[in-house]
Design goal:
The chain has 250 residues and is of the alpha/beta class. The protein has a domain at 3-96 and 171-247: 3-Layer(aba) Sandwich (Rossmann fold). The protein is 50% helix and 9% strand. The chain is built from eleven helices and four strands. The chain has a four-stranded parallel beta sheet, with helices on both faces. Strand 1 (57-61), helix 3 and strand 2 (80-85) form a beta-alpha-beta unit. Helix 3 (65-75) crosses helix 8 (157-185) and helix 6 (123-131) packs antiparallel against helix 7 (142-152). The longest helix is centred in the C-terminal third of the chain and has 29 residues, at 157-185. The protein is globular, with a radius of gyration of 17 Å.
């Protein structure tokens, strides 16, 4: 999903874009061999960061990458030079109505409630997530949702995705800790947000102003995967932000 953005920034920044375990082409051990929780995802990405000896970096996060990134920032706040969130949430007011059946599963993690979400990790659902809220759907390359749809069909992957849906409740519980980090350390933050996202509402981006008065909030007329339709515009905003807050400080 960062393919077009990377091309816009690579002339002056060192960019690293890992896939989380069970996403993209990163290994996906069976659920009995790896704990699919956000704490564990953050531990794995933290080990990745250590292996590359990254002692200073800006973080760009999206969706599930957001609570992973916030955990990295909590663990090593001195390493984080800036934050960029593309529809990566940290406030309860950002949770849209699409979370309602998932929140029911959090409250009552029964087999019945899990089965009710069985359509979530499917190619059709993934395609919907890419296209919902997009005015001109012809702008969305089919490559992204087709590849992701193929990946979710791998044996065991749908169950892994349901495990992560259940554990997302742990992120909401940590929202106050993440917000305290924002208030205490005042990292430069840019939110680049598809305003028609059915999962993470615009209010979640606006909420940063409470904790980070200097936060820069930009909205685009698109959905959850804003880079699929607005990579050029977002790239300009990200480059300007990094040039002011990261490059000038080095």
């Amino acid at each position: 999903m960062f393919r077009d953005l990377i091309a816009q920034l690579a002339d002056r920044y060192h960019l690293i874009a890992p896939d989380l375990p069970a996403f993209g082409f990163t290994e996906a051990p069976a659920s009995g061999e790896y704990a699919y929780t956000f704490d564990h995802l953050a531990k794995t990405i933290g080990q990745f960061v250590e292996a590359l000896n990254l002692d200073s970096y800006a973080l760009m996060v999206h969706d599930y990458g957001a609570p992973v990134g916030w955990r990295l920032a909590l663990a090593h706040p001195q390493r984080v030079t800036a934050l960029i969130s593309q529809n990566g949430n940290a406030y309860e007011e950002g949770l849209g109505e699409a979370w309602t059946p998932i929140q029911k599963y959090w409250r009552e993690p029964t087999s019945e409630n899990r089965r009710s979400l069985s359509e979530f990790p499917t190619p059709a659902s993934i395609k919907w997530q890419y296209l919902e809220g997009v005015a001109d759907q012809s702008l969305v390359s089919p490559d992204g949702y087709t590849l992701e749809g193929m990946q979710v069909l791998r044996p065991g992957n749908a169950e892994i995705q349901l495990d992560l849906l259940l554990d997302y409740a742990s992120n909401v519980k940590m929202y106050p800790l993440f917000q305290h980090y924002f208030r205490q350390y005042q990292p430069p933050l840019l939110a680049v947000w598809g305003k028609n996202d059915p999962f993470f509402m615009a209010a979640g981006a606006e909420a940063w102003k409470r904790d980070l008065p200097e936060a820069e909030i930009h909205f685009y007329d698109t959905g959850h995967f804003a880079l699929e339709t607005h990579a050029q515009e977002i790239g300009i905003d990200v480059r300007d932000f990094l040039d002011r807050h990261v490059r000038q400080s080095n």
